Amino acid sequence: MSVKLAAQTLSTSVANAINFLREDKRMIDFIGSEATSNFIRTIDKLFDICKSSSPKGRFSKSPLNLVNLEERVAELEAIANYLRGLRDSNNKKLTDGRRKTAFIGFLVTINSIINLSRRLLNQDDPFKYVLTYKLSQDNLETLFSRIRRRGGWNNNPTTLQFRYALRACLMKNGIRPSKIANCIGIEEAEISITDEQGALTEATKVPYELQQFLSLIVKPSVFHNDVLFLYSRLPLQETNDET
After folding, report:
1. Integer Cα distance of 104 and 110 in angstroms
2. pLDDT single digits (tens) 98-129
3. What is the value of pTM for the model shown?
């Protein structure tokens, strides 16, 4: 059966529709479409497992945890074996064909989810669950999109423009709700600011969200060099260098 594939067509509802047209309506065009329905259901299930985004998800979209881990691993391994066995009209495995990238990518993803979940759920300080959607690049693309939006959707910001856009994003995410109302609470507290050698330079009162931002500069995380590129050492004057 010839089907033009797209993400929207690989869903259980489409597989149900094909079965209905074949079994109930007995339409000639859908005779022998059992393999197509099975393929669609298998890929749809894999999609669901790979995009679990809520701890309250159900069925295939539920998070991986110690209770369902081995069951989910068995499902993923069965899907991997199914993908390895797919062949084209010339009886050549799809994983060896010219359009093998998608199928190899699925196999790598399955293997990564299995190994990473087992490690995170069985370490000394184990995770309660694993949400596979958090492993996708969507979160990174969303961050880049927000930075671009701050600069008027500029694809080539200067160093200073990128710096201010990133600072605005960090400050916005640092705002917390008030303890006594549903409005934004700007809490001030006295903090000590030190220089690069650790010497005390001043003690002042600053808004809460600014404290959060300053903490990234004063006490950077292990990802500081990679994410902020030594933000605290960037010159204040505007340059023409592009990020």
Report:
1. 10
2. 889 989 999 999 999 999 999 999 998 899 99
3. 0.62
